[in-house]
Design brief:
By secondary structure, this protein is an alpha/beta fold. The chain is built from ten helices and 14 strands. The protein has an eight-stranded mixed β-sheet, covered by helices on one side. A six-stranded parallel β-sheet has the order 3-2-1-4-5-6, with helices on both faces.
Amino acid sequence: MTKVLRIGILGTGWIAEKMARTISGMDEERGIQLFAVASRSLDKARLFATQWNIPKAFGSYDELASDKEVDLIYVATPHSEHFNNVMMAMQHEKAVLCEKAFTACAWQTEEILSYAHQHKVFVTEAIWTRYMPFSQEIVNHVNSGIIGTPKMLTANLCYPNISKPRMHRPDLAGGALLDLGVYTLNFAAMIFGTDIVSSVSTAILTDTGVDASNTIVLNYSNNRQAVLSSSNLVKSDRQGIISGDKGHIIVDNINNPNHIDIVGNDYQKIASFDCPKQITGYEYQVYACADALSKGLIESPFMPHNETLRIMRQMDDLRAQWGVRYPWDK
């Protein structure tokens, strides 16, 4: 009989709701159960539990982490809270799936990963695009030679949500980079890897001192280049385009790819592919956690610890270039 993975959600915001909807729609035979939820308000937790038919509701995060029946905690709080929330969960010997961006800055990530390795506790970053089978399919098409040798990549992700406190407050680790730009950086990494030889970037800052818009140019070995943009001032097409010397591939949405077009050397579409039907796309990271835990791993091969840390350091460097500082920066 398959061991049931009992999941507790820490937080009750919109992203927690998306995960609840995901787990509620997953195949019960795969052994996944939405078991508990916690909020700093017991009333909110109970309301959330009633809405999603969750057996247990807690009015504090520590109560959830202390529950011996909970196997995995999904951290769905603002970036500013991730470090304390994840450390608290791991200190209760709980496996953790933490929303992106993994922490507010790299030293926090270093401490979490050090603790995980020292105490053999599973933790992974919930950057959902890394776990999607369709993302790997895109990489396979890029590497197939159908567009020749890929040399240029562009990607953008922009939503007009600057008015939300978590987007413009430094004490909430606000800004476009950690919320949106993290996806463009991960998209580039999935396609071109990590062999970056140089980079330049620029950002427009809010009056609170975080980035409202940014553009990043990454130069890779073998004359490859990625141009990445993110903003919380406008709504963009969200596309990623990978160009080679024989054509290009258009990804409809780097944040949740559902369709790609492959365009040939004569600018005529030669193939299209759609993402298989999915619940929300979040299910793949949950299945990846279940698989890793069944094998006794402390990280997921889909998003290894060293890659989470590399991108956190990359974002630290970018913020330093722009003069964006958070209260936790050293």
